[in-house]
Amino acid sequence: MDNMTAQQQLLSKNRVRGWEPLVWLVAFVLPFVFPGHALIVNEVAIVALFAVSLDLVLGYTGIVSLGHAAFLGFGAYAAALFAKHVMPDPLLGLIVGTAAATVLGALCSLTILRGTDLTRLMVTLGMALILMELANKLDWLTGGSDGLQGVVMGPVLGRFEFDLYGQTAAWYSLTVLLVLFVLARRWVNSPWGATLMAVRDNPLRAMAIGIPVHHRLAVVYTVAAALAGAAGALLAQTTGFASLDVFALERSADVMLMLVIGGVGWLYGGVVGAVVFKLMHDVISGITPQYWTFWIGLFLVVLVMVGRERLIRPWRWFGHAANEKGGVR
Asked: How far is CA 18 from the centre of its chain?
């Protein structure tokens, strides 16, 4: 009976809700209805995929990473170099960037299997800094501090040219985000993925009941690196440029803030956090370019103090206050 209940819960998590197709339909329509904002839609789609990749390791296994930008940057440079020196086909470049980040993630996963959360935090941060310095020193290959310029992409599927408004780029990035999001959700809601929560909540108990904890951590970290590499490849392809900025600590910090906003352990949290963060960044920086970080910081403080659920559904705040008042009486 318990097995049937668990199976039904997994099936219910994979079931498509009525609002989901509408949300994705609106996202795909936005570049057509508002062509002037297509570039923003493209950027949101890319950072949303990056946030989903971090949520796999943070929300489902509890691994805190401050160097997740290493995979974003490695995928970006791999795709840009492939387009510049081998072939400008976007889909092949996407595969190359994803594969390169996957290999890097598999190698880096060996470093997170030992040590505490603080050790993992420093190791992931160090990896991003090492790759940034390598990209800076290998200027004959990467362009160094000037970045890798002159990346010209061919049409998507041989038909859809990248335009100046960014409509093709937005639809291309949204399609990749949707496909990888669906695959990631089916994976984490599978019986295999259900063991990740056990590893996150109590690794010793998970190991005692026969779950290979180290294998789970290595696989999840590698898959998350692959998704981050895909986001990096999209970034390089749609902008035609790859720079040292993709390895920066700010990239990893920003995506962490997105998950704080949207919530962890829920793949839509990365998407929601990316949308809210990028829109706030765009709007606030347009009003006060010098102090936009102050207002985003203030929003995060309020979010943490009040709580995400109460901020989204304010009636819960008043209901909770009324219950406490009634209890005192």
From this structure: 24
- Give bridge partners of residue 156 from the DSSP assignment: 160
Q: How crowded is the C-beta side of 53, counted as CA atoms within 13 Å?
A: 33
DSSP 86: T
Distance CA 251, CA 72 (A): 9
E-assigned strands of 158-296? none
Cα–Cα nearest to 16, from 190, 193, 186, 271: 186
Q: How far is CA 112 from CA 105, 109, 116, 273, in A?
A: 11, 5, 9, 26
| Degrees to nearest 5, angle at CA 236 with 230 and 242 | 125
CA 198, distance to chain mean position in Å, is: 22
Q: In this structure, what DSSP letter does residue 139 have?
A: H
Q: Give the span between the Cα atoms of 221 and 239, in whole angstroms.
A: 27
- Nearest CA-CA partner of 151 in 232, 267, 237, 52: 237
CA gap 150, 217 in Å, rounded: 38
Cα 262 to the center of its chain, rounded Å: 12
Please report, in angstroms and rounded to a whole number, the separation of the first and last CA atoms in the chain. Answer: 43
* Cβ 185 vs Cβ 50: under 8 Å: no
> What Cα–Cα distance (Å) separates residue 125 from each residue in 70, 111, 129, 185, 310?
8, 12, 6, 27, 33
Per-residue pLDDT of the chain (329 residues; tens, 9 = 90+): 445 565 555 555 656 677 778 888 988 888 888 888 888 889 999 999 999 999 988 888 888 888 888 899 899 999 989 988 888 888 998 999 999 999 999 888 887 777 666 777 788 888 888 888 888 888 888 877 777 877 788 888 877 777 777 788 888 999 999 999 989 888 888 888 778 877 777 777 877 777 787 888 888 889 999 999 999 999 988 888 888 888 888 888 888 888 888 878 788 888 888 888 888 888 887 787 777 778 878 887 887 777 666 555 543 444 444 444 444 33
CB 241 within 8 A of CB 109: no
Q: How far apart are CA 97 and CA 106, in angstroms?
A: 14
